Every structure is written in structure tokens, then in C-alpha cells.
Amino acid sequence: MHSVCAMKSIAFVIDLPKRHDHPLTYFPRQTSLICNVCGLLRKLYPTYVCVTCNFVAHNDCMYFPSIIKISRHRHRIAYKSSLRSGEWLCGVCRQNIEIHYGAYSCDKCCDYVVHSICALGKDVCDREDFEGVPEEDDIALGVESFYVISEGVILHFLHDHHLYLKVSILYDENKFCQACVLPIFQGTIYSCINCDFILHETCAKFGRKLQHALHPHPLTLRHVNPYEYVGFTCDACDRYCGGFIYGCHLKECDFDLDIRCASISEPVDYQGHKHPLYLALNPEEKPGSSKYRVISET
Ligand SMILES: [Zn+2]
Ligand SMILES: [Zn+2]
Ligand SMILES: [Zn+2]
Ligand SMILES: [Zn+2]
Ligand SMILES: [Zn+2]
Ligand SMILES: [Zn+2]
Ligand SMILES: [Zn+2]
Ligand SMILES: [Zn+2]
């Protein structure tokens, strides 16, 4: 043992009926065992085994939350120690899931499953356990950003005056949409008659809240005036910009997306590539590249 490890006290037997039916015994030689919960082989992690069932789990994997909310799916997903036989693709990394290892699955959609470690990734989940918490709390999404005053007239919650639907025919280089900060070309816009506030019709339709694949919590819409030079840096594209922003500043979060990045959802149909595109888990870590990930035993 490392001297540091020798000084740490490690329970020899642990009993967590929620994760496994039998008490588990500490297994001192760890380098060759794949954990049944996370499906990974990790060196130097305290590992426990059940000899009766040939079950292996890392110490910290046994405390994985049971029911979680992830950014990539609209329902909560629940931990399962194994999956029904069949071909399963992870909803996050799109790689195969080996059925004998733990995974999270959706009880509402019969085919949505995620590797345990993909489900618990930093951008995907904050690891809060929703076991026993009623699900209605999640549905504050889908609230519209404007009230319809009359046909073609709206009141947007981020502007004090009424906005009128118009068709823009001329390109004016001084006119920008206040949401996406892109120029106004031909097309339908909402414009204010009291001031120069303009929105593309499509930009006016962004809801007050958004669940985005890049953040575990719902994001809230706000307006940063680009003319006051108090812009912000988008956490997805790293551009400094203004306009409408979806952000999360709950708990320890400090996360902001500009409207352009916020409007991207998976999968992306990019005309330069023949297959649909999905978000990478971590830009530095390519999906499925982990040396020890069990993708398939065959
Ligand atoms: Zn594990
Ligand atoms: Zn057992
Ligand atoms: Zn995965
Ligand atoms: Zn679902
Ligand atoms: Zn716009
Ligand atoms: Zn106005
Ligand atoms: Zn961006
Ligand atoms: Zn957050």
C-alpha cells in the first residue's frame, strides 16, 4: 500500500442495501476489476466486492444518486444496476452500453439510457438526488416571453413598450436585433414605435426559461444592453457579446449563453457533414476515448 492509503481508515465491510443486496467486502488488490456501477477500471480506487454475486463497486460509485435530472433529457432518469438485454446506445455519448453494468434510464421513454459516468458529467448533472421529490417542480419551462396585446402587437417582458410585427424589406446597417445582436435583413421583425428596439420574430419567441444541453440547471433569459458595453462572455463560444442571454446564477453557478449558442440543440444537422452532430462530453475528452471504458465485451 501507499503510506497515505495505509493511514486512511477504510471500512472492511459495508452494507448499502439500496445499491446491492449483500454486504460488500473491501478488496485490497484493485487494478484488475471493472466496477459494476460505473463500468470503469480505475486504478487506486478503494474497491468492494460481493463474492456471491461477482459484484464489484468502487467506494464512491456506491453513493451515486438514485434519481437525477440531466441537461440532455426532459425527464428525470433513474439508476439501474443492469439493463434488459438488447442494444443500447448512451443518450449522451452515443456509444454502446454494456448491459451488465450500471446505467441510468428514463421510466417514461422506453429507450432512453445513459452510462452512469456520462449521466454524472459536470455539464450534464449536478448530482442532486431527486428520490422522493415530486416531478412537477421541474416544469417551469415553456413560459412565453411575451403577451399578445392584439393581432401583431406584443409586450415582451424585457421591453417596456409594445412591439409591432412588421416585414423588413430594406437592409439597414444600423439596425440590429436586440436579442441576437445580428443585423436585420429581410424578414419579419417586431419593432417598437417609441424607441429603436427591434427583435427578429424568431428571437422574440425564445422562452423565459430554457433547458440547454450544456448546463444541468434551467437557464433564465435576461437582456444585456450591447450599447452600454457591459457585455459578457458566452460560456459556449467564448465570444464577448451583448443582447439576450440565458444564464444560471443559482448555487455556485456562473453560466451564461448568448442566444446563438442557446438556440443550438442536439442533434445538429450541419450541411458540411452527412451525419447528425452531437455535443462532445468534454472538449478535451472525446466520447468513448477513455482507455478503460467498457464499450462492449465482444
Ligand atoms: Zn465505479
Ligand atoms: Zn451480492
Ligand atoms: Zn455514455
Ligand atoms: Zn424520458
Ligand atoms: Zn435576432
Ligand atoms: Zn421601445
Ligand atoms: Zn456563444
Ligand atoms: Zn446552474
UniProtKB/TrEMBL annotation:
Name used for this protein in its record: DC1 domain-containing protein
Domain (DC1) ranges: 18-62, 72-119, 157-204, 214-262
Keyword Repeat: yes
Transmembrane segments: none
Keyword Repeat: yes
One Pfam short name: C1_2
The entry's keywords: Repeat
Taxonomy, superkingdom: Eukaryota
